[in-house]
Amino acid sequence: MNTRDAVFPPGRQALYEQNRYSPAVRANGLLFVSGQVGSREDGTPEPGLEAQVRRAFDNLNAILQAAGCTFGDVQDVTIFMLDPQSNFQRIWDIVQAGYWGDAPHPTVTAVGVTWLYGFQFEIKVVARLPGHHAASGSVQEK
Question: Where are the domains of the chain?
Fold first, then answer.
């Protein structure tokens, strides 16, 4: 049987167990983080786009910290949003002002979608775990 090395942030494990998925999984020196939305502790959405973006990043950062990572370890980002024509710049202003960090920045793919389970924004990332670095195209321990 293949066992996943799941990472759970403090205080939200019941929510993930109820929905039957892991918030993040460690594998081969990388941390694969499930899409994070602007949900409160009980799983309900924060009201308003800006509050959802901030809460999604707070939820993401809690998972990164539980794995010993920071946003600086993030290598790849996928952002999903409703109505990108209207919302992209609002989201980007929040992200750049408070969460993105210093250059060099991670790769980013932004995708417009029609449904996010009652949310307006979702962020999914892949991060490098501390103690691992890429060398010659492969992940090696320091």
Answer: 5-141
Q: What is the pTM of this model?
A: 0.88
Residues near 137 by Cβ (< 8 Å), separated by ≥ 6? Answer: none
Architecture of domain 5-141: 2-Layer Sandwich (3.30)
- Full pLDDT tens readout for the chain, 142 residues: 567 899 999 887 777 888 888 999 999 999 999 999 999 988 899 999 999 999 999 999 999 999 999 999 999 999 999 999 999 999 999 998 888 888 899 999 999 999 999 999 999 999 999 987 655 444 444 4
Q: For residue 24, which of 81, 72, 68 has the smallest C-alpha distance?
A: 68
CA distance 44 to 76: 27
